[in-house]
């Protein structure tokens, strides 16, 4: 039986560019911005890095295929670089590559970089893409909001929640994230909003209005990882470590098997269960200090609270309205603004989430610092509710 | 010696749900020609953006096949608006209906009487023919034709034996190259000549010649005819011809001008389907198709008529209607105005034809798979069973989902995604047999979609690849019953 990744790898440096409509910057600029912060934080030389993983989703649209964009942007000394892509779990997948390489002993120090340059399309929203030669023949040419919007009515039907109550809980989620984003100097959206604004906004995809949707942003985030021993030798006495790193892609059950009712995300349930086991967490609602979940849309954040076993089945609306996930609640969610307001440069998002947990665990989160956090969870959900990839990471300190 | 009659053994129809108010059309065109108000009465059937002659022909055929399953030897598709000039349109209908590969397809076109000529040919043969006819003729905004045309389809099956509901008694054809209108290759709308000439030299001289020949072959006199079917939207043309031919005034069948409009090549069969749905056994029908000549066909209904009821039928389709008052929307659907749909409409819809070929039964016929090991029904059909408790390899047998009961599991109305008629509605559809398919919804009203809403499958246009002149089709879900 595998022992898992818990405490085998330390994060010794992280960096994150400012997210937003970065008309001033290309993907190489964004990667360098994140890298400079990360390298300085780690306190090592570029030449100490032995391997790299780069995550980018819309390759043709923004950055380009292969290892070259990272290797060339950072002028890396011809070290091996692997380009990975796993929908919205791409950033976490890059981290997974670097972490596993260090854990395997194949290298001592590795870098994971996630980047996305979305605002070079000329239109709002995410770029268009093909789903595959067969899928294009039958699947609807849906948008991301339309894909996730379907959770709304299905969740309301299953839990017998009135749509008006669901919409209010969704609005509460967006209001909370805007309030958090306002305190984050790197966030894309820093304007507080009201519940009424959310409810009055124009419809994007029923039941999602404009303020139920995350920002489409440019950005990059990166991490440098090594063994706990090397971390200590670099002066990081109680380093931040990876407690769990799990990935669960759909296998077609939600898409083609009638057992799924459309109201939850099956892969989140699977990835979360594995991650809690790997990290040794028995009661996530009691043990997690903060979470960064994939709030591409307000309704997604709401339903995954149950999938992550943080809210009881059918209890997410109540928890949200009770402020359980607010900044002053029991488990603050999206303390940095989340996808909603920090922004969602797809390839960077998973690493951006880990960046926030990393800062919070070290007491370096500035105005938005939480008191004494111990375990943070990050969650990505790429694709659509019926065809997706979930990643879950749990981050803590070596001593915990 | 037993008499084994040849004749019609089934009938069906399809009328699209949108009915455009002619009053609204005339109001929109008042600036152009106030006299168009004379045409501003009643409504015309208008295809949704995702319907063309082929999809409507499929629906008409399903209307009769749902009433009585059949494996025809031939499938003929009659239309003057075939989507493809070089690709078997009838063949695609065979796939959409899930008929056997040995069914011989034929496209019949080139004239408004393409369907009646094909019917006459079928009646003169011994094999079983499914004839489905449809037209989605375009007309320029402001033309009289845009008021008088309608979109629709009808189908009949022809065969022999005790199942014959309308026995073939005789027929006659006249060809005469009278060009009262035409549409040349590459043109989107008809060029139409003066109506008085078309009536006096055309209808009033050519139709009688065909009718007399058919009555003589059938051995009946004109006054015996119970139902006189002749398409055409000229004022009183049917009554005038009835008088001229000695047909009883009460035999004239309503050409559905006020409720549907003239559906082109489909119209004679649409009127026939209308009559067969409400007449009695033992009645004589005179069916005429007109266009560069005329076909006349005499039929007599049999006692078997009462055993055949199409799934929806003309009356059913007429009552399944949604009033439409927006002429601009109709013009956009017809491609007569170039509406701005934004950059998302630029998405490339290139088809990988190698893939479309490999998966043709799934895409054309909505054929999924049923695992013979665990019974799980799934779409698409794959080599490995999707049931997490099974996963068996190479156990799936084809199972068509197009006619199976289903309901809405999830849905959205998406105002961001591109569609010629926003919002783009789609969601997961749960089939009663256990399958789940994410698909588009069509022919819905705002606020109509709900979890658990019963839906039926319809074959529709999925994407129009204007760059390469290709259109691809797939199945969509539409609310059952009254639209």
Automatic annotation (TrEMBL), chain A:
Which positions fall inside the Thiolase C-terminal domain?
Answer: 265-392
Pfam assignment, any one = Thiolase_C_1
Q: Which UniProt keywords apply?
A: Plasmid, Transferase
The record's InterPro entries line, in alphabetical order, gives: Thiolase, Thiolase-like, Thiolase_C_2, Thiolase_N
Q: Which GO terms of the molecular function aspect are on file? A: acetyl-CoA C-acyltransferase activity
The record ties this protein, via CDD domains, to: SCP-x_thiolase (cd00829)
Q: What is this protein called?
A: Acetyl-CoA acetyltransferase
């Amino acid at each position: 039986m595998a022992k898992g990744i818990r405490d085998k790898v330390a994060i010794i440096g992280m960096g994150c560019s400012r997210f937003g409509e970065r008309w001033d910057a290309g993907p190489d600029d964004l990667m360098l911005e994140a890298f400079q912060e990360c390298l300085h934080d780690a306190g090592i030389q570029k030449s100490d890095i032995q391997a790299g993983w780069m995550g980018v989703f819309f390759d043709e649209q923004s950055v380009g295929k292969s290892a070259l964009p990272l290797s060339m942007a950072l002028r890396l000394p011809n070290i091996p670089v692997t380009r990975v892509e796993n929908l919205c779990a791409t950033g976490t997948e890059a981290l997974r590559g670097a972490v596993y390489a260090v854990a395997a002993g194949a290298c001592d120090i590795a870098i994971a970089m996630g980047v996305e340059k979305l605002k070079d399309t000329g239109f709002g929203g995410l770029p268009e893409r093909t789903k595959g030669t067969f899928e294009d023949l039958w699947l609807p040419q849906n948008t991301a909001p339309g894909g996730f919007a379907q959770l709304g009515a299905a969740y309301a039907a299953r839990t017998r929640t009135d749509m008006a109550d669901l919409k209010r809980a969704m609005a509460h989620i967006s209001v909370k994230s805007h309030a958090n984003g306002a305190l984050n100097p790197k966030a894309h959206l820093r304007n507080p909003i009201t519940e009424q604004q959310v409810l009055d906004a124009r419809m994007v995809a029923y039941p999602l209005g404009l303020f139920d949707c995350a920002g489409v942003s440019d950005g990059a985030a990166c991490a440098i990882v090594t063994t706990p021993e090397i971390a200590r030798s670099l002066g990081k006495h109680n380093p931040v470590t990876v407690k769990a790193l799990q990935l669960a892609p759909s296998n077609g059950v939600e898409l083609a098997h009638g057992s799924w009712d459309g109201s939850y995300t099956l892969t989140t349930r699977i990835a979360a269960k594995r991650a809690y086991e790997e990290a040794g967490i028995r009661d996530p609602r009691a043990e997690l200090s903060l979470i960064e979940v994939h709030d591409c849309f307000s309704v997604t954040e709401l339903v995954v609270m149950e999938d992550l076993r943080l809210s009881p089945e059918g209890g997410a609306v109540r928890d949200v309205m009770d402020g359980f996930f607010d900044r002053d609640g029991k488990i603050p969610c999206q303390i940095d603004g989340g996808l909603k307001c920090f922004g969602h440069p797809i390839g960077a998002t998973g690493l951006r989430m880990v960046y926030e947990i990393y800062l919070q665990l070290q007491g370096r989160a500035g105005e938005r610092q939480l008191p004494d956090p111990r375990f943070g969870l990050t969650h990505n959900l790429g694709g659509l509710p019926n065809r997706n990839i979930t990643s879950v990471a749990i981050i803590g300190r070596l001593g915990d | 010696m037993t008499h084994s009659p040849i004749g019609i053994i089934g009938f069906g129809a399809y009328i699209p749900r949108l009915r455009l108010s002619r009053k609204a059309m005339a109001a929109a065109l008042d600036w152009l020609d106030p006299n168009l108000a004379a045409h501003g009465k009643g409504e015309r059937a208008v295809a949704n953006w995702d319907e063309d002659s082929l999809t409507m022909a499929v629906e008409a055929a399903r209307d009769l096949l749902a009433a009585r399953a059949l494996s025809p030897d031939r499938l003929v598709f009659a239309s003057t608006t075939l989507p493809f000039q070089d690709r078997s349109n009838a063949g695609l209908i065979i796939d959409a209906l899930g008929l056997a590969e040995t069914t011989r397809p034929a496209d019949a076109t080139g004239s408004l009487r393409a369907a009646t000529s094909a019917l006459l040919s079928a009646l003169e043969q011994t094999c079983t023919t499914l004839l489905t006819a449809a037209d989605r003729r375009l007309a320029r905004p402001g033309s009289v034709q845009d008021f008088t045309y309608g979109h629709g389809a009808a189908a009949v099956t022809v065969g022999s034996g005790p199942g014959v509901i309308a026995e073939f008694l005789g027929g006659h054809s006249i060809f005469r190259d009278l060009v009262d209108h035409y549409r040349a290759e590459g043109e989107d709308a008809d060029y139409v000549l003066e109506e008085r000439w078309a009536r006096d030299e055309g209808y009033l001289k050519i139709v009688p010649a065909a009718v007399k020949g058919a009555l003589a072959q059938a051995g009946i006199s004109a006054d015996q005819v119970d139902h006189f079917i002749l398409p055409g939207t000229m004022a009183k043309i049917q009554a005038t011809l009835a008088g001229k031919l000695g047909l009883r005034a009460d035999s004239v069948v309503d050409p559905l001008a006020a409720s549907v409009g003239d559906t082109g090549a489909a119209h004679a069969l649409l009127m026939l389907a209308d009559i067969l749905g409400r007449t009695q056994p033992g009645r004589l029908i005179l069916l005429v198709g007109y266009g560069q000549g005329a076909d006349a066909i005499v039929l007599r209904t049999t006692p078997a008529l009462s055993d055949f009821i199409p799934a929806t039928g003309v009356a059913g389709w007429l009552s399944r209607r949604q009033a439409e008052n927006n002429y601009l929307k109709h013009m956009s659907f017809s491609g007569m105005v170039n509406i701005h749909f934004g950059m998302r409409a630029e998405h490339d819809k290139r088809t990988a034809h190698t893939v479309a070929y490999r998966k043709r039964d799934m895409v054309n016929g909505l054929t999924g798979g049923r695992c013979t090991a665990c019974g799980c029904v799934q779409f698409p059909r794959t080599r490995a069973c999707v049931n997490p408790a099974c996963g068996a390899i190479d156990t799936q047998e084809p199972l068509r989902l197009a006619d199976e009961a289903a309901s809405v599991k999830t849905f959205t109305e998406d105002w961001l995604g591109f569609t010629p008629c926003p919002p783009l509605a789609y969601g997961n559809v749960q089939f009663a047999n256990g399958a789940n398919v994410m698909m588009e919804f069509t022919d819905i009203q705002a606020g109509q979609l709900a979890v658990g809403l019963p839906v039926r499958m319809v074959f529709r246009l999925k994407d129009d690849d204007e760059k390469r002149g290709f259109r691809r089709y797939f199945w969509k879900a539409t609310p059952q019953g009254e639209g």
